[in-house]
Structures are given as structure tokens and as C-alpha cells.
Specification:
Length: 335
């Protein structure tokens, strides 16, 4: 090795191993996150894996099951969502499930190994009568010994406290994308509305589950902007779902150019490096992913998946297939 290549190696090695930034609460600029996304693939994955092993069980994966407690007919215009009333998709509207139906589904999910049960409803935000029903569901699912999560849209002041008193562990509310790209995707509410709901959730002492969607026609810089926004929340979310757009016929984003799979893996790795203690969830889009890409996502620091046959309305790999993949990779479920 000549002197020049040794210097290059040394400089590069310190970059790859530099986890110092991960350990404090330093802010991440968009440019810094983009420089992570720009790294040679192997270096980025190595760095993410080093961070991952520092903070997490290297081979543990948390399994969450998601159920739609109220489907379709939503007044919002999220360009990716088949549940928006204004788009003509194959999703059938479904009124709110009964308490019994939810508890039965939660018990079945627990029996198959899920430790967290997420309840989603297609609303702009819940009305008071909806919150009352949701708090009953949260209490009943908690009584089964599971962690609870809800995703109900924008929360009005006081609603997060009601959910917290019922024992809600996590509230999911995604930022979806970077602020500058947001209006391309949603016009019926503002980025700040989302941030306000996240603050309500934090103030109520509920853990935050917040991530985004990639593959919506955004640039790498936009993906860096999303990750920087998430990482700079103070504190950053406990749970960070990274979704790959599932293209549904009838939605405005149907027909968007498909994101390269390695770019998705890079996004997972950037989430892991910038939010070292968070559970990074490999979320929507897994059904379209090969086992090899999913394995790369785990290597890049994903340590949580949605587990079950269905997400809110789109398909998800069957439980048996997931279990076979976890077995093949020597991964175990976190309790
Ligand atoms: S993502 Fe949520 S808020 Fe947006 S249209 Fe779908 S159900 Fe409504």
C-alpha cells in the first residue's frame, strides 16, 4: 500500500466508524444526512450495523400487528392513500369495528407472536365519541398484556391525554416526507398540523411512532430532508416506520417511477445512524420486496416489522412466510 492509498483508507475508515454524532442529541442538517445517503453502500451499511449493535439486540426484531378499526371514506387527500374518499379505489368502506372484534384480532395476533397491536382509523382526526370508543379498545388490548399503538389522524388538545389515561403506549403520526415536498402529496393539512399533533402526543407522555414514505417521486435530497426532520425532533421518535410507497390504482401516485431497492435500504440505514435508539420499522412495501432486500434492511438496522396478512388496506407477507424468513436469518422476535 503506498502512502496515498493508506491516507485515503485511514480517512475513509474514520468516516465509516464515526458513531460519535449518533450518541448525542446533535441536530442533523439535510446535507449531513445526504452525505450519509451518498456513502458507498458497503460503508453506509457497515456504519449503520455498528450503530445498531451498540444500542440493540443485533438479531432481535419487534413484531407489530396492525388492524384497521375504521376503513375508507377519509376526507383528506393524501396522494398515496386508497382510503381517501375522493379517489376511486377498490377499498370498501367499513364502519368502526366493535370492541369484541378488536379484542379477538388482538388475541389472535398475540398468539402468533406479536407484542404490539396497532389500531388505525381513516379520519382527519377523531371526534369525541370516537375517542371514547378508542379508549375502550386501548384498555382491552392492554389487558391482554400487549403494547398498544393507535393512528387516528390529527389530535385536538386533550385527546392525547385521554388516550394516555387509557394506557396507550404509542401514537403513530407520520411526517410522510420532507417539508418542501409535502404539498406535492397532501394539501388538506399542513406540515405544522402534523408537528402540532406530535407535540400533543409528547406532552401526554405517549411514545411517538413517526416516519415517512419513500418512493413517491422524491429526490434523494428530499429523503435526506425527511430523515433530518425526524432525527431533529426533540426527542426523536421511539419508533420510526419507513414505508415504501405501495402503488394503488386510483390514487394520484399510482404509476410513480419505482424507487430502486438499494435506495430504500440506504434510507433505512440513514434512519438507524441518525436515530440510534429508535426501533426502525420496515413497514409498507415489504410484500413487493425480495427476501434478499428485506435481509439487507435488517442489516441496515431495521428491527421492527408489521406482522400479519394485511396492513390497513394493502397486503403484507403472510405470517408463515415472515416466520420462515426470520428463521432463515436467525432472527428472533423481541417480546
Ligand atoms: S393517510 Fe390517513 S389521513 Fe390521509 S387519506 Fe389516508 S386515511 Fe386519510
Amino acid at each position: 500500500m503506498n502512502y496515498n492509498s493508506f491516507t485515503a483508507y485511514e480517512t475513509h475508515d474514520s468516516l465509516v466508524n464515526n458513531t460519535a454524532k449518533s450518541e448525542d442529541v446533535a441536530q442533523w442538517s439535510v446535507a449531513e444526512v445526504q452525505s450519509l445517503l451518498d456513502m458507498p453502500f458497503n460503508d453506509l451499511i457497515y456504519r449503520a450495523q455498528c450503530v445498531h449493535r451498540q444500542y440493540h439486540d443485533a438479531n432481535g426484531v419487534q413484531l407489530s400487528t396492525l388492524i384497521s378499526v375504521k376503513t375508507g371514506g377519509c376526507p383528506e387527500d393524501c396522494g398515496y392513500c386508497p382510503q381517501a374518499a375522493r379517489y376511486h379505489t377498490s377499498v370498501d368502506n367499513q364502519d368502526m369495528l366493535s370492541l369484541d372484534e378488536v379484542v379477538t384480532a388482538a388475541a389472535a395476533a398475540k398468539a402468533k407472536g406479536a407484542s404490539r397491536f396497532c389500531m388505525g382509523a381513516a379520519w382527519r382526526g377523531p371526534k369525541q365519541r370516537d375517542i371514547e370508543k378508542m379508549t375502550e379498545m386501548v384498555r382491552a388490548v392492554k389487558a391482554l398484556g400487549m403494547e398498544t399503538c393507535a393512528t387516528l389522524g390529527l389530535l385536538k388538545p386533550g385527546q392525547a391525554h385521554q388516550l394516555s389515561e387509557a394506557g396507550l403506549d404509542y401514537y403513530n403520526h407520520n411526517l410522510d416526507t420532507a417539508p418542501e415536498y409535502y404539498e406535492e402529496i397532501i394539501t388538506t393539512r399542513q406540515y405544522q398540523d402534523r408537528l402540532n399533533t406530535l407535540q400533543e402526543v409528547r406532552n401526554a407522555g405517549i411514545n411517538v411512532c413517526c416516519g415517512g414514505i419513500v418512493g413517491m417521486g422524491e429526490t434523494r435530497e428530499t429523503r435526506a430532508g425527511l430523515i433530518a426532520q425526524l432525527a431533529n425532533l426533540n426527542p426523536y421518535p421511539e419508533s420510526v416506520p419507513i414505508n415504501q410507497l405501495v402503488q394503488v390504482k386510483g390514487t394520484p401516485l399510482y404509476g410513480t417511477a419505482t424507487l430502486d431497492s438499494f435506495e430504500f435500504v440506504r434510507t433505512i440505514a440513514a434512519a438507524r445512524v441518525t436515530m440510534p435508539k429508535a426501533m426502525v420499522r420496515l413497514s409498507a412495501g415489504r410484500q413487493e420486496m425480495s427476501e434478499a432486500i428485506q435481509a439487507l434492511c435488517f442489516l441496515a438496522g431495521a428491527n421492527s416489522i408489521f406482522y400479519g396478512d394485511k396492513l390497513l388496506t394493502t397486503g403484507n407477507p403472510e405470517v408463515d412466510r415472515d416466520q420462515a424468513l426470520l428463521d432463515k436469518l436467525g432472527l428472533h422476535a423481541l417480546s
